[in-house]
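Hi all, long-time lurker, first post. I run a small reading group and we've been trying to get comfortable going from sequence to structure in the token notation. Rather than ask abstract questions, I figured I'd post a concrete chain and ask someone more experienced to write out its structure so we can walk through it together at our next meeting. Sequence below, copied exactly:
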Amino acid sequence: MSTTKLRPWTELVKLDPDVESGTLTEAAFAIDLGAIAEGDPNVPLVYRDPEAFFRATYLTADLRKLLEEVLASLAGKSGYNRVLKLRTPFGGGKSHTLAALLHAARSPRALDLIPEARDFARPGEVAVAVFDGEKFDALNGKTLANGRTIRTMWGWIAWQIDPERAFPLVARHDEERVAPGGEVIRRMLTEGAGGRPVLILLDEVLKYMERAAAVSVLDSTLQRQAKDFFQNLTVEVAGCQRTALVYSLSWSAREALGNVALLAEIDKLAARVDQLREPVSGDEILPVLQRRLLARPPEAAIADEVATAYEQVITGMKWARAETSAEKMQAQEEGRVLRQRLRAAYPFHPALIDLMRERWTAVDAFQRTRGALRFLTAVMHSLKKRGGAAPLLGPGDVPLSDVEVRVKLLKELGAQNDYDPVITADIEGPNARAKRIDERIAAEAPALAGVRPATRLATAILLYSFGGLSRQGAGESETLPPGVTENELLAACVGPELDNITATAVLSELGNHCLYLHY
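-- Answer (accepted) --
Happy to help. Here is the structure in token form:
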């Protein structure tokens, strides 16, 4: 076993004050774009205030590109895409991206807080129109403070551009719920804006279209009118200088309320002029999590020390299991990459991030970024408050003994109380089988008392029992069965305080004694 003694991450990392205090609610990670646009004081300050928003925002590659090209288009520069589509998995950052564009257009000075954004174009005063399809009522429309009712998607967009100049151009169209033609839309974007640049942000378009199908308009429906408007809007925006449109769509059929045909139709309406963007991809989730959950970035020297210690143990295990020189070389190369990822992910173990990003996204209920933030908030708060943290936060370190963490885990994965018997009998119950194994090991090897290897392995196995990896060469809906190989499990659980030989022996014992473990 390695003699390296590393301190728990809870002693070396400063958590965001709200994470440490446990005051963050689930709603704190759910962005209400419409409420932000209207300045609703009930929206958390971190989303409502532009400077607070950008302090807590990590600019991923695509978000940076989005901001750059949208601001350039609004400033009148040529060569940029003016119609952009956001399509990511559920909870994958669409609303956060739209909020970033909203704040950048309205309060460009706030971008100065981000060094890489200081060279972005500054288009001046921008007319910003936000349409939140989840909130806008298809039947009753939207009633303003002055008593006026805006009835349609186009009416609400025009009103936000300018109630005195833009809205009168479509007032009758709004009253009759008949979509305006391309010429009227172009006038709305130009004359109606009084020469100002126009940014239109559309969120949850599919949800609005679904409800609009139930509203009759003469011999048509409001859905058909809305689709006609949406298509004409994308064409006119693409042809207008100093104008940009960014809209979001669901990623897959399982998020489309079952209406696959409508999703495909809306997707095709703007296919000639739009460009696809994915706000968060690959390992970019790591700095996103760190920026939102930590008060400040971890110290590089600490991250490097922990990464080196873990990489040596994991690579040593793979080297010992390699049978050929090619496999040994592969183990070394994988170790080099692993060290980089461990350093970048600290205090998180990359295996935990990969688990959520690659496997749990196959679970219908799990939200890719938002769900990860909510789950990790509960875990980090618990370990900071109760103690028992390891040098890294990995799949086996989730404190299932904490009822709040357990409830959060199962709720995010849509399992509710289905797994309570599993956890009680095998992992964290008063007489759980993993606990009994750990007690015997602690009596024989006191140095392992705080490591709790059986509980660590059993916890990791439970987390790997949800979702599944995408089947190679198949569509995103085709996944492998849930579960984890022995090599993957050990790589996620061993470290300076738990060697491969001990972990393998404990895994064998778990397989012989646990009721719910299938090996």
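A couple of things your group might point at:
The two ends are 26 Å apart (CA to CA).
The beta strands are 83-87, 127-132, 142-143, 149-150, 198-203, 216-217, 220-221, 243-249, 275-277.
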